[in-house]
Amino acid sequence: MKSALILGGTQFVGKRLVRLLIDEGVEVTVATRGLTPDAFGDQVSRLIINREDAESLEKAFKAKTWDVVFDQTCYSSQEALDTLTVLKGKVQKYIFTSSQAVYDFGTNHLEESFNPFGYQPVLKSRRDYIGYVGYQEAKRAAEAILFQNADLPVVAVRFPIIIGKDDYTNRLQFHVEHVKEGRPMFIEHPDFRYSFIESGEAASFLLSMAKSDYQGPVNPGSEEDISLGELMELIENLIGKKAIVSEDGDPSPYNLPGSWSVNRNLVESLGFRFSSLERLLKILILHYSKI
């Protein structure tokens, strides 16, 4: 891989991925709306695009080619189709940042629990997808568009919840701060279980998928999953204070409609290992407790 196009690349995992590619000597082009500054200077090329405007893609990508595209910012079936169409003949592999949200709520999902070849996508814009159910449909439909129509290898990386010290969503930090400061929070279903992955490992995995011969969907992430109740107990033990859980408290950002966790047998068979979830959570909880 000598060149890569990143759709996104200025926040969180995308930013980490750009740095990894630069360090590998890859010629990197970052395509964004141009609203978020980055610190890469002249180490990358930059293009301005609007994912909801196919003409902006055509203009930006005209007469250009790359070995791999990393799609970090696709949130609709229409965007997937437009991007695939415009990039036809311009890239050799498509790495799509998908989500464990493609699965129905539940635990220990194998990749075959959702088959993008059997899903009938409806073309919609990102504004047509509302809430978690909408997000689920958007990622399912985008995968279906890519796998059913691409004439190049596609990898759908079905990330679980991504956490790290650079997590701008502050979802894990929310829980640590509420326990530390004695603020009440509302956890609707403490028994629901979720999978996680560290942001640096997520970026490294995307790079590895670009280098590998693998194509298809894949579930990366820490081997274990954890319930919200277990997470709160871990935070309590590390901080030394009891959580105040109340229906009148601030709603937990992890209050999802059901469990979402994935099986990692396939990714482990490919030779990948990820940090222990308990160890990762301990590091982050202690980090947030000092902020």
Automatic annotation (TrEMBL):
<dbReference type="InterPro" id="IPR036291">
    <property type="entry name" value="NAD(P)-bd_dom_sf"/>
</dbReference>
<protein>
    <submittedName>
        <fullName>Nucleoside-diphosphate-sugar epimerase</fullName>
    </submittedName>
</protein>
<feature type="domain" description="NAD-dependent epimerase/dehydratase">
    <location>
        <begin position="4"/>
        <end position="209"/>
    </location>
</feature>
<dbReference type="InterPro" id="IPR001509">
    <property type="entry name" value="Epimerase_deHydtase"/>
</dbReference>
<dbReference type="InterPro" id="IPR050177">
    <property type="entry name" value="Lipid_A_modif_metabolic_enz"/>
</dbReference>
<dbReference type="Pfam" id="PF01370">
    <property type="entry name" value="Epimerase"/>
</dbReference>
